[in-house]
Amino acid sequence: PPPVYLPLAPRMKETSGWQQVFSSPRLDWAIERVALNAKVLGGALGDHDKMVAAASSSEIILWALRADGNGSEIGVFHLGVPVEALFFVGNQLIATSHTGKIGVWNAVTKHWQIQDVVPINSYDAAGTFLLLGCNNGSIYYVDVQKFPLRMKDNDLLVTELYRDPTEDAVTALSVYLT
Hints:
With 178 residues, the chain is mainly beta. The protein has strands spanning 8-13, 17-23, 33-37, 50-56, 59-65, 71-78, 85-89, 92-97, 101-106, 111-116, 120-126, 129-134, 138-143, 159-163. The chain contains no helices and 14 strands.
């Protein structure tokens, strides 16, 4: 039989140590990326909900985890290209690929948005900002908390923050906002 893949979410209690709080249904594909959001304060899923996402190739499954240990599938999303990074910025799930695609799941609107950008070499998150270092020497940012969409085409608003005059690729980002 094929192997079984189950994302598990643990919880640490001082009195009893680590405890399993969630196990996904059986998945027939290997999990390549996992993201866990430990606490979503004031999010659309409630103050105490947690989320876990798993990705394989271009497919992403997102679950909401409740305090009672139950979980429910929020949705299955497709990036269209292999997912190379999967993480949360606040309560927004982000998937990126070096090919220049980003996917953002907005917890408030429950909307999955895919955006094409320049091929991505690096990324970082600071506060609610997602910053992308690209191979054309540009650094782009998206305020994922506001989830801004352009009026003319309903695309995610990706703003160029900096462009290197020699167009050298931005291969690393590290951002700290005060």
